[in-house]
Amino acid sequence: MKTGYLVLALLIMGCGNDKAPETITGPKGEIFTRRVVANQLSDPWEITYGPDNHLWVTEAKGYRVSKINPIDGSKKVLLDLNGLKNFDRYDKAKDGKDGKPWPQGGLMGLALHAQLLAGKPYVYLAYVHHFAGAAKEGNGCEDLFGGCFYKARIVRYTYDSKLDSLVQPEIISDTLPASSDHNGGRLLMATVDDKPYLFYAIGEMGAGQFDNGGRTNHAQNTGSYEGKILRFNAEPDADPNPYDKWIPNDNPFNARVQNAVWTTGHRNPQGLAFALGKIYSTEHGPYSDDEVNIIERASNYGHPLIEGLSDGNYNGLAAGASDHKELPGIWHTTYPLITSEQANASAIGASYRNPVKSLYPTPHSELQNILNKTLEGDRAEWISEAPSSIDVYTSSAIPGWKNSLLIPALKTGQLVRLQLNAANDGIMGDTINYFKDVARYRDLAISPDGRNIYLSVDSSSKSSGPTEGKSKKSFCRGCIVAFTYEPGGKQ
Length: 491
Fold this sequence. Notes:
By secondary structure, the protein is mainly beta. The protein has a single domain (6-485), classed as 6 Propeller (Neuraminidase). It is built from two helices and 26 strands. The chain has helices spanning 341-348, 364-375; strands spanning 6-7, 22-25, 31-38, 44-49, 55-59, 64-68, 75-80, 107-112, 122-134, 148-160, 165-179, 187-192, 195-202, 228-233, 261-263, 269-275, 278-283, 290-295, 357-359, 391-393, 404-408, 415-420, 427-434, 441-446, 452-457, 480-485. The strands form six sheets. Strands 1, 2, 3, 24, 25 and 26 form a six-stranded mixed sheet that branches. It has a four-stranded antiparallel sheet with strand order 4-5-6-7, with no helix packed on it. It is globular.
């Protein structure tokens, strides 16, 4: 579980932490005060509450790692990575022949070793570092439909508490695939058999849809890292190869070569959390059908053969489409046609896992209409949350919240709460929504006392995917906002 005050990034144009706290009432009568902790960040992507009582933050487009005091908002930059990428600053990057475009994300995941201040001063970072080119001539990726190709890396730094900085980088992997779409990017420290490991959620690169419509989808290929959850060692083992030493020798797909793949069949997993002995994940669906999954060794989560539950709503369709008529197939995409989700689940066999929650299954007829509009060049709308992260609320501080999944949403601008069942392996009841605003909530953290909820908000109010160009006025951009529970409300 990521500890931290639950930070909700409030979109208030020009807002600052000098603003007086506001009172917000939750759907169950809970009373929260809301205040801005920090603003004018360059897309705060990861926020983690550290053992030093500070928020550790990555800025996706700023390529900086900082610590922020959650009380007064003061900021200390620990690391600047701008010199370690081969593409321009975001405000100078171009999507054309004369400039190298920007990937989805940038500097993304951060994970702290559980013993950060107790002998294991390790901080793990994931970021895109290399633009490798497009599928066709020229550096730009617009209208090529074969994809934009990048490389990402995971690096372990040592935290020097005296200098208050990150030093001594050790590369865990620097050839991870990346793209202009669906990089995933979340890092997580979790234990397996009482030993800590590093997990990384990586998307399928947007392969099969929109500008990546002609790119091959490898989510079902165990020999590819695309569309997977990966597992690495938190500390190197004795293997002589410099990269093998970071890959656990008991990973499930190590038969022919050392392989970091832990699970397969993912689309765009952007949330990972560890609590109650389980790893929980959120994943973007293609047209609704966002997923909440429990991540289990060697399991297959279906994409692109099953979307959401194996309920048949995608039967006769594909998981995405492109309006580029030169691409193969009826949907002009490299996605396979899903003849039957049920048959595909049966063919995958015992390793297949349905999500514990689908947000929200869309009827077949509506999916057909969405795909038809896409083929006509329209940007269709559909019901979805676009879950960007996940955390597990295990405190008793807020009545009725204990053992709930908390999911920030990019599309609907709200925090989704799902109550776990007694075994913590399923959901009881429906979704309960909090803190709705015109915002793209990117990540969250929870304070150790459980009273504070932090959410971060993107600097931009529009997506790089299906809703590209649909920008909405937001209150505040690049913010971190604290929601503090005030006892005494209705319960």
